[in-house]
């Protein structure tokens, strides 16, 4: 029964069992939802974010009310000295299923349906 229901943590965070992996260095804000099989490493997830099944978020900041689709990847290289060493998604950014976003900055209220690398999306 426990594997069928999402695990509820403090501040209404919902993490679906069984195969998600979180950490190290991950901060998840209120009302975030993380699907089964998702992988989060060195990232900040702000309020009301939905990360779908099997999505990966590494070296990134995901803005309020954003969503990351199934099998999508949002990733930075982790080089904080580089011009675009991390990925930042603004408020209400939708990354559709199977889209890869690498070392990019995406301003608010955008939908990404194609993969991007080292881009600033205005």
CATH architecture: 3 Solenoid
CATH domain topology: UDP N-Acetylglucosamine Acyltransferase, domain 1
Count of discrete structural domains: 1
**SS field, number of helical segments:** 0
Give the strand tally.
17
Report the structural category.
mainly beta
Shape descriptor reads: globular
In N-to-C order, the SSE pattern is EEEEEEEEEEEEEEEEE
The low-pLDDT segments are 1-10
How large is the share of residues in beta strands? 35-45%
The rounded distance between the terminal residues' Cα atoms is 45 Å
Radius of gyration: 13 Å
**What's the CATH superfamily, by name?**
Hexapeptide repeat proteins
Mean pLDDT: 87
Described by strand count, sense and barrel closure, the largest sheet is: 10 strands, parallel
Helix content: under 10%
CATH first level:
Mainly Beta
Describe this structure in words.
Pfam families: GMPPB_C. This is Mannose-1-phosphate guanylyltransferase 1. InterPro entries: GMPPB_C (IPR056729), Mannose-1P_guanyltransferase (IPR050486), Trimer_LpxA-like_sf (IPR011004). Keywords: Nucleotidyltransferase, Transferase. GO terms for molecular function: nucleotidyltransferase activity. With 122 residues, this protein is an all-beta fold. It has one domain: UDP N-Acetylglucosamine Acyltransferase, domain 1, CATH 2.160.10. It is built from no helices and 17 strands. The protein has strands at 7-9, 13-15, 21-22, 26-28, 33-34, 39-45, 50-51, 56-62, 67-68, 73-75, 87-89, 94-95, 100-102, 105-106, 111-112, 116-117, 120-121. Strands 3, 4, 6, 8, 10, 11, 13, 14, 16 and 17 form a ten-stranded parallel sheet that branches. A hairpin with a 3-residue loop joins β1 (7-9) and β2 (13-15). It starts with 6 loop residues before the first strand and ends with a strand.
């Amino acid at each position: 029964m426990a594997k069928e229901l999402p695990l509820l943590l403090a501040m209404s965070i919902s993490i679906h069992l069984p195969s998600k992996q979180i950490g190290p260095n991950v901060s998840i804000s209120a009302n975030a939802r993380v699907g089964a099989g998702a992988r989060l490493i060195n990232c900040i997830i702000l309020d009301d974010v939905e990360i779908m099944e099997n999505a990966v978020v590494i070296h990134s900041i995901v803005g309020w009310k954003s969503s990351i689709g199934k099998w999508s990847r949002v990733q930075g290289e982790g080089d904080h000295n580089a011009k675009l060493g991390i990925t930042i998604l603004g408020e209400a950014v939708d990354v559709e299923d199977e889209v890869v976003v690498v070392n990019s900055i995406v301003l608010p209220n955008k939908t990404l349906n194609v993969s991007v690398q080292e881009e600033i999306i205005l």
